[in-house]
Design brief:
Blueprint: H1 3-11, H2 15-19, H3 25-32, E1 36-40, H4 52-56, E2 60-64, H5 72-75, E3 81-84, H6 90-96, E4 100-103, H7 113-116, E5 121-123, H8 126-136, H9 142-151, E6 157-161, H10 184-197, E7 201-204
Length: 208
């Protein structure tokens, strides 16, 4: 597919040509199999921790959206996979240099050419987003979509860092919880229930 064809498919919301650029969901989940995964969220509270070495010691480090890393001490340095629901400049993506680039948003018109044409690109199915939205009663955050996806994988371990469900706001903006479309109370309940039923999952927060 050339760039013009891509822009046309994106504008007209033609899913099949865009999906043809993507790894299948089964192929992506196979990449997670047997791995010890660190999923790094963007809560401001992570900046006050010393989890960086633990994050970088994982087999696979997944970051979200623009992946702020204010300190190696708190956030580590590696980015093996980047899960996106917002735009990112090509230069910033090259600096992060993820092996996998996951477009999690159901909004195809926002999908950049330089993301869709990277090796290891994955387009998250709209139906998965819709199913999770129905379960939560609100649009899911990028982080929760990744948690749900990892729960369906055969990852050996999944440790969550930088998830406090907007209690400390986000490193990537100044909006409060009431100004974003997500229901963080519902997301916290979702994760709490997952932690109780799936021993592979752990949540690391300040003081733990």
């Amino acid at each position: 597919m050339n760039r013009l064809s891509f822009l046309l498919a994106r504008t007209l919301r033609r899913e099949a040509p865009l999906a043809a650029l993507s790894l299948s969901e089964d192929a992506l989940l196979a990449r997670f199999a047997t791995e010890r995964v660190a999923l790094v969220g963007n809560a401001r509270s992570l900046s006050g921790t010393s989890f960086g070495e633990e994050i970088d010691a994982a087999d696979l480090v997944i970051r979200l959206n623009r992946a702020p890393m204010p300190s190696a001490t708190s956030h580590g340095t590696r980015t093996d996979a980047l899960a996106l629901a917002t735009s990112i400049k090509a230069e910033a993506l090259e600096r992060l240099s993820p092996r996998l680039t996951l477009w999690m948003s159901h909004k195809r018109k926002r999908l950049p050419w330089h993301v869709a044409t990277r090796r290891g690109f994955y387009l998250h199915p709209r139906e998965d987003h819709a199913d999770l939205k129905q379960r939560l009663g609100a649009p899911p955050s990028t982080g929760l979509m990744m948690i749900d996806l990892l729960a369906r994988s055969r990852a050996a371990e999944v440790t969550l860092f930088g998830f406090d469900f907007f209690a400390s706001l986000s490193l990537t903006g100044s909006r409060s919880a009431d100004r974003v479309p997500h229901d963080f109370t519902a997301e916290a309940v979702f994760v709490r229930d997952l932690l109780q039923r799936d021993p592979r999952f752990a949540l690391r927060s300040a003081g733990t």
